[in-house]
Amino acid sequence: MSLGEVPYISHLTTRSGNKAADQLVIHQGEYKIFKSYNSIVAVKADYGEKVYLVNPYWDNYSATTNRYLLQFLDEHSIKDVRASIANNRTGGRYRIIDSIKEIGGY
């Protein structure tokens, strides 16, 4: 493992700009992994070109997880995310998965 592959962790931020407890982004190579409490909720791959949303956590699992997921995705509402998935307006950016094991290379 090279030094560039060592993961690092950052916190998402609260509305007041503080670090959000238990709302983490794990950075590892081309991947950014959003973890809320003990659950992996979403993974950005290919430097953000692809986003994997993990069932059942991504779709309004809790108000807190939802708020920070939207921050991670840089989206305004889960309705917008659902519409993007349904209409494929994002060129296939979002994919729903049941486990991160479904992500090739991870």
Tell me the number of strands.
6
The largest sheet, given as strand count, sense and whether it forms a barrel, is: 6 strands, mixed
The shape, in one word, is: globular
User: What helical percentage do the residues reach?
Assistant: 10-25%
Distance between the amino and carboxyl termini: 15 Å
User: How are the strands of the largest sheet arranged?
Assistant: 1-2-3-4-5-6
Beta-strand percent range: 35-45%
Oligomer: single chain
Helix- and strand-based class? alpha+beta
Q: What is the helix tally?
A: 2
The SSE string, one letter per element, is: EEEEEHHE
Integer count of domains: 1
**Please, what is the average pLDDT?**
86
What is the radius of gyration computed over CA atoms, rounded to a whole number of angstroms? 14 Å
Unreliable segments (pLDDT under 50, ≥5 consecutive)?
none
Features:
single chain; 106 residues; alpha+beta; six-stranded mixed beta sheet; globular
How is this structure best described in words?
The protein is an alpha+beta fold and 106 residues long. The chain has one domain. It is 20% helix and 36% strand. It is built from two helices and six strands, in the order βββββααβ. The protein has a six-stranded mixed beta sheet, covered by helices on one side. The longest helix is centred in the middle third of the chain and has 11 residues, at 63-73.
Secondary-structure map:
Blueprint: E1 8-13, E2 19-28, E3 31-36, E4 39-45, E5 50-54, H1 63-73, H2 78-87, E6 94-97
Short structural summary:
The chain has 106 residues and is α+β, with helices and mostly antiparallel strands. The protein is 20% helix and 36% strand. A hairpin with a 4-residue loop joins β4 and β5.
